[in-house]
Amino acid sequence: MKTFLRNDAIRFVLCLSALFLAACETVPTGPQSGFSPVAANGNLVTRVTRFSFPPEIGAFKRIGGHQYDAAGLDVSVKYEAGRLIVLDVYDYPAKNGSLQNELRFREGEIKQTHADARLISETPITIHPGGQSHTGQKAVFEFTQNFRPDVKGPYKSQLLVFPVRDRFVAYRATFSRDHADRAERELDQFLNALAWPNE
Q1: Phi, psi dihedrals of residue 129, rounded to the nearest 5°
Q2: In this structure, how many other beta carbons lie within 10 angstroms of the beta carbon of residue 47?
Q3: Bridge partners of residue 119, in order along the sequence
Q4: Tens of pLDDT along 29-85?
Q5: CA within 20 to 30 Å of 79's CA: 57, 94, 185, 189, which one?
Q6: Who contacts 180 (Cβ-Cβ below 8 Å, separation ≥6)?
Q7: What is the pTM of this model?
């Protein structure tokens, strides 16, 4: 009981110290975690690729990290720009072969989650995070179901997938279609501001 209370007290103090993030982050840590302990500058760093995620980038605030496998090789970090955009950045092993195969697989996931999801476009895209040039594929969807109830639909969602050696970096950004112009401007700034690890 004392241990539980002590841990609760520690979490409470950490949450108070992180009020500038607008919410307490949920980040897996430990020997098998996909993340190193939060750095002194507030950055959340992945253990495998040393991808560094700042607490804030433009209008976006980091919400937390998630680990999908026991070894910590498959991780994501969530950002939100108020109620304008929900953005997840994924860093994970390439299990599906080519970029096109990976894109098809991720598009299938979106259609499973959002039954009325409709693919609007699919195009190559090049971004310049931290001045580096990376080319991948971008798919744009529209749907009306299974998103946040506090954000008015219909919704627009962008999926961007980039190959990086034996891994993929992917972005999934979802926002109200009514505010798509502003959301896409903020997203473009984020894509070029978040520096990738040195290759």
Answers
A1: -65, 125
A2: 18
A3: 141
A4: 554 589 988 888 999 999 989 999 999 999 999 999 999 998 889 999 999 999 999
A5: 94
A6: 156
A7: 0.83
